[in-house]
């Protein structure tokens, strides 16, 4: 027969001083749920020692800290993953437009060369050379005497052909600009949505932390009160 100064814990089935006896109905619900997770038969009519209760209090605090660290890591991973996903969104415009045809490549090269100082200098030298040959070498009786009708014809034909080719290249450039504008819009919209989601996650995390911290403070106060009671 057990002594009146001791009791048997319903958790460990060990004998403890009666002063350490704690009723299950006085235990806070989060810690009671943690105990019942290990001992499903532990109900409000059962008892345990203060040492066992403190062990589960410490376990509850440790579990909370581990969960919080995990939530912060998951949040950080979501942000990093979201940033990495931007690589697929900010793909090059050339890839989305498709492979250029031979005509488009020629148009781009003609436009690039026709709009450069190299073309202006070379064409100016060609015209000057043409005029000097006909005036000074052929004494204005050559293949294209003054007023250089053949040269005017060549210039007119060149302008007539060069203009639509340059316009083709400009149209392609406008198409690329439209694709870039669409990309900018999509990136801005995605960024705005991600910022909103991030704010919601942070608000939820802060509220959750506040509730858990209040619960932990209550548990710590109970532990301090138990220690003070044992000291007295």
From TrEMBL:
It comes from Flavobacterium yafengii. It holds the Pfam family DUF1003. PANTHER family: INTEGRAL MEMBRANE PROTEIN-RELATED (PTHR41386), MEMBRANE PROTEIN (PTHR41386:SF1). It comes from the Bacteria. This is DUF1003 domain-containing protein. The chain crosses the membrane at residues 119-139, 145-168. Keywords: Membrane, Transmembrane, Transmembrane helix.
């Amino acid at each position: 027969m057990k002594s009146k100064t001791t009791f048997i814990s319903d958790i460990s089935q060990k004998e403890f001083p009666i002063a350490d006896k704690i009723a299950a109905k006085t235990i806070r619900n989060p810690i009671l749920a943690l105990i019942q997770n290990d001992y499903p038969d532990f109900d409000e009519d059962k008892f345990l020692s203060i040492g066992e209760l403190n062990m589960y209090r410490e376990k509850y605090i440790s579990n909370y800290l581990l969960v919080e660290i995990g939530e912060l890591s998951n949040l950080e991973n979501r942000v990093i993953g979201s940033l990495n996903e931007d690589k697929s969104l900010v793909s090059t415009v050339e890839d989305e437009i498709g492979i250029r045809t031979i005509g488009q490549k020629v148009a781009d090269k003609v436009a690039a060369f026709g709009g450069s100082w190299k073309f202006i200098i070379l064409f100016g030298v060609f015209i000057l050379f043409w005029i000097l040959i006909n005036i000074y070498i052929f004494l204005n009786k050559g293949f294209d005497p003054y007023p250089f009708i053949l040269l005017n014809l060549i210039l007119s034909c060149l302008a007539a052909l060069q203009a639509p080719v340059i316009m083709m290249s400009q149209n392609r450039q406008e198409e690329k600009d439209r694709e870039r504008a669409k990309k900018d819009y999509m990136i801005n919209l995605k960024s705005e949505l991600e910022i909103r989601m991030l704010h919601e996650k942070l608000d939820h995390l802060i509220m959750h932390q506040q509730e858990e911290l209040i619960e932990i403070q209550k548990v710590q106060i109970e532990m301090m009160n138990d220690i003070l009671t044992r000291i007295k």
